Automatic annotation (TrEMBL):
CDD domains: FBPase. It is found in: Cytoplasm. This is Fructose-1,6-bisphosphatase class 1. Belongs to the FBPase class 1 family. Residues 6-197 form the Fructose-1-6-bisphosphatase class I N-terminal domain. It comes from Candidatus Enterovibrio escicola. The gene is fbp.
Amino acid sequence: MYNIRTLGEFIIEKQQDYPHASGELSSLLSSIRLAAKIVNKAVNKAGLVNIAGAFGSENIQGEQQQKLDVYANEKFKSAMAARDQVCGVASEEENDVVDFEKALGRNAKYVILMDPLDGSSNIDVNVSVGTIFSIYHRISPIGKPTTIEDFLQLGNKQIAAGYIIYGSSTMLVYTTGNGVHGFTYDPSIGVFCLSHESIIIPQNGNIYSINEGNYIKFPLGVKKYLKYCQKYVPDENRPYISRYIGSLVSDFHRNMLKGGIYLYPSTAVYPNGKLRLLYECNPMSFIIEQAGGTASDGRQRILDIQPTELHQRVPFFVGSPNMVDKVETFLKQFPDQE
Ligand code: P6P
């Protein structure tokens, strides 16, 4: 039997990093672990139980809600509501924040923001999808209903963030500000086992991930960067490799392990970028910085952007620091005409 260090043991072991949390954060991460197992089961057999395919309703993004989107949202919400530490959640699948009545009058001090099933349009074609979560201390008085300010906090105030990738294997990757750690799910024993301790992204890489179908309307600096990636310069390992799965968690995870950059700039359809600041860009930026990478909107650090709306979108450039720096240089050198 290989030397197993389970997620549960690891969380307890690292608890001393958070003496003030007295196990509350651990309990919260355990509820996410539980929901991940439940959703993983459903994702793994989506094709069989007709749980894939559009639910019919639309979320606030105007996107068809896939049945699994709704299922994952409900499972993560109920797993968190079952714990006394969480007073409310914000979700891509919820128009407004959701207060947990049970937590009111309790000592619940955390709020969670999540994309319960990112990349869900890939579900019915059997491509990897993921869950993304972000955890903050509430700033409104404990015991009272949450306020929108609890959720519109700067990304640099996050106390934990992570994702679950439902891929060829299912992994849970998270940070609490002490490095990034990955756990691979072993369904035969029903536990997440430590498989990637202290992940560090290569400073440079040769993989770029972008939907080049939007090329015509990209900012000029992005177009220049893509031509830079594609130029034949063997001594600099160029042309780079283009890899785009259409599922942020999958592209992000591969690039973090191998080195690379994910780009979602402004496009004709999404003039502010497509990805949502609060529950996609902020958690992924916290993770990548903890792994030694960088994340920006092309001009400023994602984690320093003051949120103004729950579902606001930002342009997103994330990955190996040298590559993010390069695209920022091109954006500065070739500014778009206002
Ligand atoms: P496009 C999925 O909807 C998502 O939010 C990310 O997971 C993914 O990287 C991106 O959008 C794909 O968007 O416009 O290229 O299909």
